Automatic annotation (TrEMBL):
This is BspA family leucine-rich repeat surface protein. The keyword Signal applies. Keywords: Signal. Residues 365-389 have a biased composition (Low complexity). It comes from the Bacteria. Residues 354-398 are annotated as: Disordered.
């Protein structure tokens, strides 16, 4: 290939619109992955390119010389000081080589990583080996945000020599990677403030050693272990006294069976500082051993899993049992609780370990005296069998707090079916997992137990502007997938979370508008009342507001008020970002922007998950954390 042809290819690579993925929890759409923090890139950091043959390309990254062999996908990086991600040879927009062609990276000499190492090796979807990382000096690095983010084929790196003593940001560090085992026992995390989404969507990660983690300064553990394959987590050494959000921390961890959070201090869960354990989400499905401490507080929105009657041949009473105290001394005949009762009743007064209570097969029964055998009777001729009748559903008056007329919403990806025995061929509609404010709602018209003993809700879709509005059918009643949309209990305070805000009214029927409250406003609650099959909160002034969980959330929640962009952003007319306001309307990198509201894309499309958007003056911009940093909360 000629030099002219190669340089044309380089130009083409620079113009590619990169990666579009929907992330599980956050639903972020990745168009580019800039560094998270603003760092001035000087001329010495600029990647310098020269083509030496058809297959070999060379250049410099910072002060390190690099060589790329296109025939093998191998990038060799020599000694020196690396530049930031935007000057990397494989950068999405400024790179000299196609990031998709990089399969192996060899660090051949001692290299020093930049202070801002955010996204340094991000998005190398075909990278299978990163060799020589033990030669990397990371002692000066403060920002590890997204270091290996979306390296979806990378399953191991030698991290044994990493010096993280100055690190403050480890958010997204291993997210969307293929790591199977991570030994981070030598990590110094004493200065880290964000572990947000650190291990998000790591479907191969079965074990992680965090025994040395010092979390005394960590403020965010949002989605930290979301959708991993971790089987057991011992977090007893975690200091959570400064953590302000744990939203979705264990969400989707379907392999997690043992969890020790006995060191967690969640005592501020209902105060103004609001440690958001309300959305811990422990409903991965297999959690069967939970150790808690004296300062751990639970609540009903944490969604402990429903315990099966039988699993892997073992039968359970479908209750949790208190089996060990905080010192691991056995408790004889400890109290038992349903998942709902444990979430409601645990207040730290009985710290220790709670497990699924087994049905003891070895309990002896009193033998009965044998009966005297009778003479056998002459068999009669068999009768001709009749055709079996199709088993019918059994109608239920209620299931938990749900009864006919109740409104429920979808927590995870669910389907609407034609019949109560679910078959893929009988699916009527698909409802993707969405953010809380956009979850699909259904009115329950009946509750049935099918021939297999499974409880189903017979529902009508009441998502009025959706493409599925008005459809009827069956959905699962599994508490991991559907739940009442209205609060059932009172709370001291709630935060308005609906994008367009809510109104207060003179009457519990929500008639006679009094006042409008914007998204992010915190309201003090006096009481809760019922109205038909819904609930309303009474404010201190005696007016009524909705208790719909899509519109309000218990406690004090935080919303972005001002952001600082870390990349150039276009402004759009709608939250789907389909039509730009103007080709000239651009938010420059480093600009401070006031946020008017939080929205999500695909609001009226039930089959597609939504991604975060910010409403600003004049339009909508991406809410991807890789493009902006929140610098002020409201």
């Amino acid at each position: 290939m000629s030099l002219v042809s190669r340089l044309k290819l380089v130009k083409t690579y620079k113009q590619i619109a990169i990666i579009s993925v929907s992330t599980i929890a956050l639903g972020a759409t990745l168009s580019t992955i800039p560094a998270k923090a603003d760092v001035n890139t000087n001329a010495a950091q600029t990647s310098k390119l020269k083509a030496t043959s058809d297959n070999i390309t060379t250049g410099t990254w910072g002060t390190s010389a690099w060589t790329f062999d296109d025939s093998t996908g191998t990038l060799d990086i020599g000694p020196g000081t690396l530049g930031t991600r935007d000057s990397a040879p494989f950068d999405f927009t400024n790179g000299d080589i196609d990031y998709n062609s990089v399969k192996t990276i060899n660090i051949t000499g001692s290299v020093t990583l930049p202070q801002d190492s955010s996204g340094l090796f991000t998005g190398l979807g075909n990278l299978t080996a990163l060799n020589g990382f033990d030669k990397a000096d990371t002692s000066n690095v403060t920002n590890f945000h997204g270091l290996f983010y979306y390296d979806s084929k990378l399953d191991s790196v030698d991290l044994s020599h990493m010096n993280t003593s100055n690190a403050t940001d480890m958010s997204y560090m291993f997210a969307f990677s293929l790591f199977r085992n991570l030994d981070l026992s030598k990590f110094n995390t004493s200065k880290v403030t964000s572990m947000d989404s650190m291990f998000l969507h790591t479907p191969n990660l079965v074990s992680v050693n965090l025994s040395s983690f010092d979390t005394a300064n960590v403020e965010s553990m949002l989605h930290m272990f979301n959708s991993s394959a971790i089987k057991s987590l011992n977090l007893k050494n975690f200091n959570t006294s400064k953590v302000t959000t744990m939203d979705g921390m264990f969400q989707g961890d379907s392999s997690l069976t043992n969890l020790d959070i006995s060191g967690f201090d969640t005592s501020q869960a209902t105060t103004d500082s609001m440690l958001d354990t309300a959305s811990f989400d422990l409903s991965g499905g297999s959690l069967s051993s939970l150790k808690m401490g004296p300062k751990t507080k639970l609540n009903a929105d944490m969604r402990l899993p429903d315990i099966p009657y039988i699993l892997d041949g073992i039968k359970y009473t479908q209750n949790w049992q208190y089996v060990k105290n905080s010192s691991d001394a056995p408790i004889s005949n400890g109290n038992t609780y349903t998942s709902q009762a444990l979430m409601a009743d645990y207040d730290g007064s009985n710290p220790g370990t709670y497990v699924w209570e087994k049905i003891n097969k070895d309990d002896p029964t009193t033998p009965t005296n044998p009966t005297t055998p009778t003479n056998p009777t002459t068999p009669t001729n068999p009768t001709t069998p009749t055709d079996p009748t199709t088993p019918k559903d059994t109608e239920l008056d209620h299931y938990g707090s749900v009864s006919k007329g109740s409104v429920v919403y979808g927590l995870n990806h669910i389907y609407l079916y034609k019949s109560s025995v679910f078959k893929t061929t009988d699916r009527v509609a698909s409802y993707s997992k969405k953010s809380r404010i956009a979850r699909p709602m259904f009115t329950v018209t009946s509750i049935v137990k099918n021939s297999n003993g499974k409880v189903r809700y017979v529902v009508k879709d009441v998502n009025h502007n959706s493409n599925t509005a008005g459809q009827t059918g069956y959905i699962t009643a599994n508490a991991n997938y559907s739940a009442p949309v209205y609060y059932q209990g009172n709370h001291d305070k709630v935060t308005v979370i609906g994008s367009t805000g809510i109104n207060s009214y003179n009457d519990k029927s929500l008639s006679g508008k009094v006042k409008h409250y914007r998204q992010g406003q915190v309201l003090s609650i006096k009481d809760i009342v019922t109205h038909n099959k819904t609930t309303r909160f009474i404010l201190k002034d005696g007016t009524y507001i909705t208790a719909n969980k899509k519109l309000v959330k218990m406690g004090k929640q935080k919303f972005a008020k001002t952001i600082k962009t870390t990349a150039k952003l276009n402004v759009y007319k709608d939250s789907n970002l389909t039509t730009r306001v103007s080709s000239k309307r651009v938010i420059k990198k480093g600009d401070k922007v006031s946020v008017k509201g939080l929205y999500y894309s695909n609001e009226n499309n039930s089959s597609k998950s939504g991604t975060k958007r910010y409403l600003i003056d004049g339009g909508y911009i991406s809410g991807n954390k890789l493009y902006s940093k929140v610098i002020r909360l409201k």
